[in-house]
Specification:
The structure holds 2 protein chains of 2 kinds.
Chain A: E1 8-14, E2 23-29, E3 32-38, H1 51-54, E4 70-73, E5 76-79, H2 82-100, E6 105-109, H3 115-129, E7 134-136, H4 143-153, E8 170-174, H5 178-181, H6 183-195, E9 199-202, E10 215-217, H7 224-237, H8 243-249, E11 250-251, H9 253-261, H10 267-270, H11 274-286, E12 290-294, H12 296-299, H13 304-317, E13 327-330, H14 337-342, E14 349-350, E15 354-355, H15 359-368, H16 384-389, E16 397-401, H17 405-408, H18 412-420, E17 424-429, E18 441-444, E19 453-456, E20 461-465, H19 478-488, H20 499-508, H21 518-521, E21 527-528, E22 554-555, E23 574-579, H22 595-600, E24 605-608, H23 610-616, E25 623-627, E26 632-639, E27 647-651, E28 678-684
Parallel strand pairs in A: 6-7, 6-16, 8-9, 8-12, 9-10, 11-22, 12-13, 16-17, 17-18, 23-27, 24-26
Antiparallel strand pairs in A: 1-2, 2-3, 4-5, 4-18, 14-15, 19-20, 20-21, 23-28, 24-27, 25-26, 25-28
Helix pairs in contact in A: 2-19, 3-19, 3-20, 4-13, 7-9, 7-11, 7-13
Chain B: E1 7-12, H1 15-20, H2 26-36, E2 42-48, E3 55-60, H3 63-66, H4 80-87, E4 96-100, H5 102-113, E5 122-127, H6 135-144, E6 153-159, E7 162-167, E8 170-175, H7 176-181, H8 188-192, E9 203-206, E10 219-223, H9 226-238, E11 241-245, H10 248-275, H11 279-290, H12 298-302, H13 329-338, H14 347-350, H15 358-373, H16 391-400, H17 408-411
Parallel strand pairs in B: 2-4, 4-5, 5-9
Antiparallel strand pairs in B: 1-10, 1-11, 2-3, 6-7, 7-8, 9-10
Helix pairs in contact in B: 2-9, 4-5
The chains are: A alpha/beta, B alpha/beta.
Chain lengths: ~700, ~425
């Protein structure tokens, strides 16, 4: 295109919200951000947007943006120069490192920010402080997907692209309310429905997504493994397993078979009638091509990794992996949750999932980063919530990039107490958040509209983020701030001039992304990794012909059902489930600044069954008190049959909301806390 | 002297424009002249973004930039007037020139009626439009039906009923009918559209009816307003444009093409509207389709009729906020407010993330209302039916009652809302 001077500009970029990675045009008029317009050329969303994407520009320039570094002096935060702030951070972190060693520091990065920032932070942690204590918030959404799918298939990512559901003959959505949490991925399911593709939705709640289903299966919350095993019992009993696929491409069938036999009738666990279990099992096994889409209903439990492996089991048993129209697809929650993991902001891998425990990998990275041989640690670093739990004990200093732990981590009161135990805490963000008052230094970063970079969506597509306007005040690019710290420490390899420099730094030491160049990303189709060479077209569908695992095989597991850590009892008789709302994103730092989104849902609510409400004398929209062993919240009742009796549902977006109640017990394999299930009691608030 | 009603062949005499121009470069020359002579302060034009499937609006003030935007993009499905309303202050204090297709022209009038655009400050050059193709579907169509990699296509056009592509090493055309039978081709609203020659613009231009020695070398111009005549005259005087009277045979051919397009549109209307059923069946269809709505507000945001700051759908007494599925009242409000003025521009359907055939539903109602009340939207400044309610007086009356919830008793919403 020839350069045309225009005061009105469209800047195509990637939506900052969920993991679908929609493209949109930011509209700039006379240098000011004024709106969002459809980017119809996008192969991902064809110009279509959800309520959040359509209003994302509104959150950019609102009161409350951080514009200068802030340093806590006494009880108050005072504005400081960048030099002062960086000096203080380097001094404190160096002291802590000297006194306590590499395990005394924790680094946490957001999955909301660009790949380049995530890569920069983990590089600083590893080069500057020789620590693997670096993690991202995938830990509290899809950590179990990374762990589970790696075990089942050899790669922790979604197998097929979103659009590929249009090639399926049957769609199973399990623990996914995509219509609200991933609207433009749900649009593909809507398209498939219009084509006549049957849809099974497995969810305890009659969600907006369940309303799309031909068959909606309500089951007892958190009994996924029992239900999956029960289905596999029927598939094997009817001889519908894909025998050739199992023989050629998998291992572990005997274990699985033995386990499934124990679940010949598990209705008393999962609550689904046997006819239904048999029916959906046979539908899934008989479909020529069937895809499973799942989400946090599967992962945010102490059985998260095993739940994910159960989805893998179903697909492997029926040969539904490795071609169009099939697969097992986690819908990644945040815009860059895939990318943050890909970048190695993870306690046991470098970028591209190169394990830190493998000596050759360490040697390679040491060479690439100019470190002395043998300097990088081989140990498994501390994870996101472990870091919080260890505050004041092992961990004395923490660097938090774009996270609001006080609202979004489980058990808010516990998080606040822990952060206050730190000797030194840095928070780098765009807005002043609830967590900032627990920091010692707060640094102003830039948001998606103010920087170049990339987000990697849930279909492993690396999408460009393009700068539309300058950041406010003295704010800086987030990777630039990290580079300043590194340079102050005298570290080499942080002399990036642009986001592309950071990306190329990463590419150079990451074989499965080496071929994903900024030049190739200029095309709206961009590239799906793995893409090992610059000539390689990328890989939209994984595991064709051969699994990514070292032996090339998919693995089935015999998995036993385990109940959640805390189940309803006489004292706390209700089960509390959590989820998301289409109108808000996470802790609402951005979405609540959009007038329309705020208007739709300004405060938290709880869904409670009609029978329960009647029994407790609770009217529609009455304020009620909900209490768990960890805390309480006051919220508005929405009386509905969308939830079963004795089951409640709240969304996770509100401060002093459901995360006052949630459980911190972890999945032993992925360290995922059990955010989706805890026991609570419900009380009317006595009228004054 | 050019005057309203003239039918001309026009072409540029500017050597620079000739190099790049299609069909004689008349439109490019006119805009260059309009900017140079300060008849307009800026021209809102469309240019290629990522590639020829990506149409991007640009606001041009430098006459030298005009030639860079030459050529039509059939995969560009922008609606320009709404952009002027949203981002350019409705042309309140700035004279803007715009090249428009039928739906743009109609949308300009509807926004002007609602005082959202100052038409006195707008010059429209209309271009014939047989319809446009959504970019992603166009790429799929080129890959599947033409067997050509869409990335190597450097030009596309619709001519003589065919969608034609040129690419490295060849060109290929397939009839639009055949493509549409196979589920490709133009947007469904375009198929039903009967605004093929936008005569409510100041000039209506195109290649239909250019025959004889000037075929392919001149643009057919129908002068539709005094403003249009003045623009033509100025450009001719300036020596950048030449004209001659159109060949009478050409006129016939042009009318014939338009007539054939109308016939085809009628066929599609019949096809599309009949599929909706009638009465209760139609209502059921509408309720089923709209039940998927996720309240993204994009249909409203992109609609050239919608402009209210306090949209009635945001009144909690009308539509309970924060709920999916969205209460059906949301859609009833939209239909009742817009259907009399819907210009079938298709934006609401193209941007819908829930695959609701919004434009089809709205258009089907508009056509019925037009039959009943004889009002045709988008062709002139005649006010729609709803406008005969004096909004200010009506609001004042409601304010005096202390509430604007006029439907409360009719629909008896749930207590406590």
């Amino acid at each position: 295109m020839e350069e045309i001077k225009s005061t009105l500009k469209y800047v195509p970029t990637t939506c900052p919200y969920c993991g679908v990675g929609c493209t949109l045009n930011l509209v700039v008029n006379d240098g000011k951000l004024v709106g969002v317009e459809p980017f119809k050329r996008s192969p991902i969303n064809e110009g279509k947007l959800c309520p959040k994407g359509a209003t994302c520009w509104e959150s950019v320039d609102k009161p409350g943006r951080l514009t200068k570094p802030l340093i806590k002096k006494g009880d108050k935060f005072e504005e400081a120069s960048w030099d002062e702030a960086i000096d203080l951070i380097v001094k404190k972190f160096t002291e802590i490192h000297k006194a306590g060693g590499p395990k005394a520091l924790g680094f946490q990065t957001s999955c909301r920010t660009v790949n380049e920032d995530c890569y920069a932070l983990q590089k600083l942690a590893r080069v500057g402080f020789l620590t693997n204590n670096v993690d991202n918030c995938a830990r509290i959404c899809h950590g179990p997907s990374v762990a589970g799918l790696s075990l089942s298939f050899g790669s922790g990512a979604a197998t097929n692209p979103f659009e590929d559901v249009l090639n399926a003959d049957l769609i199973v959505m399990w623990g996914s309310n995509a219509v609200e949490a991933h609207p433009l991925a749900a649009r593909r399911v809507m398209q498939a429905k219009k084509k006549g593709t049957p849809i099974i939705v497995v969810d305890p709640r009659y969600s907006a997504t369940a309303r799309l289903a031909d068959t909606w299966v309500r089951f007892t919350p958190s009994t996924h493994i029992a239900l999956a095993n029960n289905m596999m019992y029927y598939i094997i009993k009817e001889g519908l397993e894909d025998k050739e696929f199992i023989k050629e491409r998998t291992k572990g069938f005997e274990d699985l078979k033995k386990m499934a036999e124990k679940y010949a009738d598990a209705t008393k666990i999962h609550g689904v009638p046997q006819e239904t279990v048999r029916d959906i099992a046979i539908q899934y096994a008989k479909a020529k091509n069937a895809v499973i889409i799942y989400c946090l209903g599967i992962t945010e439990l102490t059985t998260g990794t095993d739940n994910v492996r159960s989805m893998g089991n179903l697909a492997l048993l029926t040969g539904n992996v490795g071609r169009p129209g099939v697969g097992v697809n986690p819908l990644r929650g945040q815009n860059n949750v895939q990318g943050a993991c890909d970048m190695g902001a993870y306690p046991n891998v470098y970028a591209g999932y190169q394990a830190c425990s493998v000596p050759e990998n360490r040697a390679k990275i040491e060479k690439a980063w100019g470190l002395a041989a043998g300097s990088l640690p081989d140990w498994y670093g501390s994870t996101l919530t472990e870091q919080i739990n260890d505050c004041g004990e092992v961990i004395k200093g923490m660097y938090i990039l774009g996270l609001n732990p006080v609202v979004t981590y489980p058990d808010s009161n516990h998080v606040k107490k822990c952060l206050d135990k730190l000797d030194f805490c840095v928070i780098q963000d765009i807005y002043w958040t609830e967590s900032c008052q627990h920091a010692d230094v707060v640094l102003p970063g830039t948001c998606f509209a103010e920087k170049d970079g990339t987000f990697t969506s849930g279909e492993r597509r690396v999408n460009r983020v393009r700068k539309a306007v300058d950041g406010p005040g003295e704010s800086k690019y987030d990777w630039e701030i990290i580079g300043m710290i590194a340079k102050k420490m005298g570290l080499k390899g942080f002399d990036w001039k642009s986001a592309k420099d950071v990306w190329d730094d990463m590419r150079a030491c990451t074989p499965n992304m080496f071929g994903v160049t900024y030049e190739k990303m200029e095309k709206p189709e961009s590239v799906h990794w793995p893409c090992p060479t610059e000539e390689h077209p990328g890989t939209p569908i994984l595991h064709c012909g051969k699994f990514s695992a070292a032996d090339g095989k998919g693995t089935m597991f015999g998995l036993e059902y385990r109940p959640p850590a805390e189940v309803a009892d006489a004292e706390y008789p209700y089960t509390m489930m959590t989820g998301r709302l289409i109108f808000h994103y996470h802790s609402r730092t951005q979405t609540d600044r959009c007038a329309d989104l705020h208007r739709e849902v300004p405060e938290s609510y709880v869904q409670i069954n009609t029978e329960d409400a009647k029994e407790l004398g609770i009217r529609q929209h009455e304020k009620i008190k909900i209490t768990s062993r960890r805390g309480e919240t006051i919220t508005t009742a929405r009386v509905t049959d969308d939830v079963a009796p004795k089951v409640l549902y709240m969304t996770m977006h509100f401060a002093d909301g459901v995360n006052n109640l949630t459980n911190t017990v972890l999945d032993p394999m992925s360290k995922m806390p059990e955010l989706k299930h805890c026991a609570v009691k419900v009380e009317k608030i006595k009228e004054a | 002297m050019t005057k309203k009603g003239d039918m001309l062949y026009a072409w540029t005499t500017d050597a620079e424009i000739q190099k790049k121009a299609e069909l004689g470069g008349a439109v490019t020359a006119l805009w260059k002249y309009a900017l140079e002579s300060k008849m307009v302060d800026a021209v809102l034009a469309v240019t290629k973004g990522a590639d020829l499937y990506d149409a991007v609006p640009v606001l041009i003030t430098d006459p030298a930039d005009i030639a860079k935007t030459a050529g039509s993009l059939h995969c560009g499905t922008l609606l320009l007037p709404k952009l002027i309303k949203k981002y350019l202050d409705g042309a309140k204090n700035k004279k803007i020139g715009v090249t428009v297709k039928g739906c743009d022209a109609m949308a300009f009038y509807e926004l002007a009626k609602r005082k959202q655009i100052n038409l006195d400050n707008v010059i429209m050059i209309g271009v014939n439009c047989g319809g446009s193709v959504s970019p992603v579907l166009a790429r799929k169509m080129i890959a599947d039906k033409y067997g050509v990699d869409p990335n190597i296509v450097h030009k596309e056009e619709i001519d003589k009923g065919q969608f034609i592509i040129e690419y490295e090493g060849g060109h290929k055309g397939i009839s639009v009918d055949e493509l549409e039978e196979a589920g490709y081709g133009r947007r469904s609203n375009c198929r039903r559209c009967k605004m093929k020659i936008p005569r409510q613009a100041d000039l209506a231009c195109g290649n239909w009816g250019v025959i004889g020695p000037k075929a392919g070398k001149a643009t057919f111009v129908e002068v539709c307003s005094e403003k249009g005549a003045a623009l033509m005259d100025g450009a001719v005087k300036k020596g950048i444009l030449a004209t001659e009277a159109a060949n009478p045979k050409g006129l016939e051919i042009r009318a014939k093409i338009e007539g054939a397009m109308f016939k085809l549109a009628d066929k599609w209307r019949k096809h599309d509207f009949e599929a909706l059923g009638e009465g209760k069946d139609r209502l059921k269809y509408i309720m089923t389709e709209t039940s998927r709505c996720i309240k993204c507000y994009q249909c409203i945001d992109q609609c050239p009729i919608c402009y209210c700051v306090d949209c009635t759908t945001k009144n909690p007494a009308m539509v309970p906020p924060g709920e999916l599925p969205v209460n059906f009242m949301f859609h009833l409000i939209r239909y009742s407010h817009i259907a009399d003025s819907c210009v079938n521009c298709g934006q609401c359907e193209e941007v819908c993330p829930a695959e609701i055939p919004n434009a089809l539903i709205m258009h089907s109602q508009q056509v019925e209302l037009e039959k009943m009340f004889g009002h045709t939207p988008g062709v002139n400044m005649e006010l729609p039916l709803m406008a005969y309610v004096e909004e200010k007086e009506e609001r004042a009356r409601l304010n005096n009652t202390g509430s604007d919830m006029i439907y409360q008793n009719v629909f008896s919403p749930v207590k406590g809302r």
